[in-house]
Protein backbone atom coordinates (compact mmCIF):
# COMPACT_ATOMS: atom_id res chain seq x y z
CA UNK A 1 0.00 0.00 0.00
CA UNK A 2 1.35 3.42 -0.98
CA UNK A 3 1.52 6.06 1.75
CA UNK A 4 1.42 9.84 1.52
CA UNK A 5 5.17 9.86 2.14
CA UNK A 6 5.68 7.58 -0.88
CA UNK A 7 3.75 10.06 -3.05
CA UNK A 8 5.79 13.03 -1.87
CA UNK A 9 8.36 14.00 -4.52
CA UNK A 10 11.95 13.47 -3.46
CA UNK A 11 14.11 16.57 -3.50
CA UNK A 12 17.65 16.41 -4.80
CA UNK A 13 20.60 17.30 -2.60
CA UNK A 14 21.22 21.05 -2.50
CA UNK A 15 24.51 22.66 -1.50
CA UNK A 16 24.13 24.79 1.63
CA UNK A 17 27.86 25.45 1.90
CA UNK A 18 30.81 24.71 -0.33
CA UNK A 19 31.43 21.12 0.71
CA UNK A 20 28.09 20.37 2.40
CA UNK A 21 24.98 19.03 0.70
CA UNK A 22 21.54 18.72 2.26
CA UNK A 23 19.01 16.23 0.92
CA UNK A 24 15.51 16.43 2.33
CA UNK A 25 13.23 13.44 1.90
CA UNK A 26 10.02 13.97 3.79
CA UNK A 27 10.82 14.36 7.48
CA UNK A 28 14.43 13.23 7.02
CA UNK A 29 17.30 15.58 6.18
CA UNK A 30 20.59 13.98 5.14
CA UNK A 31 23.75 16.08 5.45
CA UNK A 32 26.58 14.93 3.17
CA UNK A 33 30.18 16.10 3.23
CA UNK A 34 31.19 16.76 -0.38
CA UNK A 35 34.92 17.56 -0.40
CA UNK A 36 36.43 14.42 -1.98
CA UNK A 37 39.46 16.37 -3.23
CA UNK A 38 40.27 17.09 0.44
CA UNK A 39 39.17 13.63 1.64
CA UNK A 40 36.24 15.38 3.34
CA UNK A 41 38.53 17.18 5.77
CA UNK A 42 36.54 19.42 8.07
CA UNK A 43 37.39 23.10 8.15
CA UNK A 44 36.14 25.45 10.84
CA UNK A 45 33.68 26.97 8.34
CA UNK A 46 32.37 23.50 7.45
CA UNK A 47 31.91 22.67 11.15
CA UNK A 48 29.91 25.88 11.48
CA UNK A 49 27.81 25.02 8.41
CA UNK A 50 27.10 21.54 9.80
CA UNK A 51 26.04 22.99 13.14
CA UNK A 52 23.88 25.66 11.51
CA UNK A 53 22.24 23.21 9.12
CA UNK A 54 21.42 20.81 11.91
CA UNK A 55 20.23 23.47 14.32
CA UNK A 56 18.23 25.77 12.08
CA UNK A 57 17.02 23.54 9.25
CA UNK A 58 13.63 22.77 10.81
CA UNK A 59 13.08 26.46 11.72
CA UNK A 60 14.27 27.73 8.33
CA UNK A 61 12.09 25.20 6.55
CA UNK A 62 9.09 26.19 8.65
CA UNK A 63 9.64 29.90 7.91
CA UNK A 64 10.01 29.28 4.18
CA UNK A 65 7.04 26.94 3.91
CA UNK A 66 4.67 29.10 5.89
CA UNK A 67 6.03 32.45 4.62
CA UNK A 68 5.40 33.84 8.08
CA UNK A 69 6.78 37.14 9.28
CA UNK A 70 9.78 36.67 11.55
CA UNK A 71 9.94 38.96 14.61
CA UNK A 72 13.19 40.88 15.05
CA UNK A 73 14.32 39.02 18.18
CA UNK A 74 13.82 35.65 16.47
CA UNK A 75 15.61 36.87 13.33
CA UNK A 76 18.60 37.85 15.47
CA UNK A 77 18.56 34.54 17.33
CA UNK A 78 18.53 32.61 14.02
CA UNK A 79 21.31 34.73 12.54
CA UNK A 80 19.06 36.44 9.99
CA UNK A 81 19.70 39.86 11.53
CA UNK A 82 22.97 41.15 12.92
CA UNK A 83 21.78 44.15 14.91
CA UNK A 84 18.45 45.16 16.41
CA UNK A 85 17.58 48.83 16.81
CA UNK A 86 14.36 50.58 17.75
CA UNK A 87 12.40 51.93 14.78
CA UNK A 88 13.14 55.53 15.80
CA UNK A 89 16.88 54.80 15.84
CA UNK A 90 17.02 53.05 12.45
CA UNK A 91 18.16 56.05 10.36
CA UNK A 92 20.96 56.86 12.80
CA UNK A 93 22.07 53.20 12.94
CA UNK A 94 22.16 52.99 9.14
CA UNK A 95 24.13 56.26 8.95
CA UNK A 96 26.63 54.99 11.57
CA UNK A 97 27.12 51.67 9.77
CA UNK A 98 27.51 53.39 6.39
CA UNK A 99 30.10 55.79 7.80
CA UNK A 100 32.03 52.91 9.38
CA UNK A 101 32.00 50.87 6.16
CA UNK A 102 33.10 53.81 4.03
CA UNK A 103 36.00 54.53 6.40
CA UNK A 104 37.58 51.12 5.71
CA UNK A 105 40.55 51.20 3.33
CA UNK A 106 39.43 49.75 -0.01
CA UNK A 107 42.53 47.55 -0.32
CA UNK A 108 42.05 46.16 3.17
CA UNK A 109 38.37 45.47 2.45
CA UNK A 110 39.25 43.67 -0.79
CA UNK A 111 41.91 41.58 0.98
CA UNK A 112 39.50 40.70 3.80
CA UNK A 113 36.80 39.59 1.36
CA UNK A 114 39.32 37.49 -0.56
CA UNK A 115 40.51 35.81 2.66
CA UNK A 116 36.95 35.13 3.80
CA UNK A 117 35.98 33.64 0.43
CA UNK A 118 38.90 31.20 0.45
CA UNK A 119 38.66 30.29 4.16
CA UNK A 120 36.05 27.51 3.80
CA UNK A 121 38.37 25.56 1.49
CA UNK A 122 41.52 26.05 3.58
CA UNK A 123 42.80 24.06 6.48
CA UNK A 124 43.75 26.30 9.43
CA UNK A 125 47.48 26.31 8.60
CA UNK A 126 46.72 27.26 5.00
CA UNK A 127 44.46 30.09 6.11
CA UNK A 128 47.03 31.42 8.59
CA UNK A 129 49.66 31.40 5.83
CA UNK A 130 47.32 33.25 3.46
CA UNK A 131 46.56 35.84 6.14
CA UNK A 132 50.26 36.32 6.94
CA UNK A 133 51.05 36.78 3.24
CA UNK A 134 48.23 39.32 2.88
CA UNK A 135 49.36 41.25 5.97
CA UNK A 136 52.98 41.27 4.77
CA UNK A 137 51.88 42.62 1.39
CA UNK A 138 49.73 45.32 2.99
CA UNK A 139 52.60 46.38 5.29
CA UNK A 140 55.02 46.55 2.35
CA UNK A 141 52.54 48.70 0.46
CA UNK A 142 52.11 51.05 3.45
CA UNK A 143 55.80 51.37 4.28
CA UNK A 144 57.32 51.28 0.81
CA UNK A 145 58.84 47.82 1.00
CA UNK A 146 60.38 48.02 4.50
CA UNK A 147 58.83 45.52 6.93
CA UNK A 148 61.21 45.59 9.89
Automatic annotation (TrEMBL):
The record's similarity note reads: Belongs to the enoyl-CoA hydratase/isomerase family.
For this entry, the protein name equals Enoyl-CoA hydratase
Superkingdom is Bacteria
Annotated SUPFAM superfamilies:
ClpP/crotonase
Residue spans making up a coiled coil are none
Amino acid sequence: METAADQRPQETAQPVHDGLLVDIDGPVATLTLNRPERRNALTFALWQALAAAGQHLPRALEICLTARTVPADEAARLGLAETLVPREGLDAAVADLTTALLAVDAGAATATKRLLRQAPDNLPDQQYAAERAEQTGRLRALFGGATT
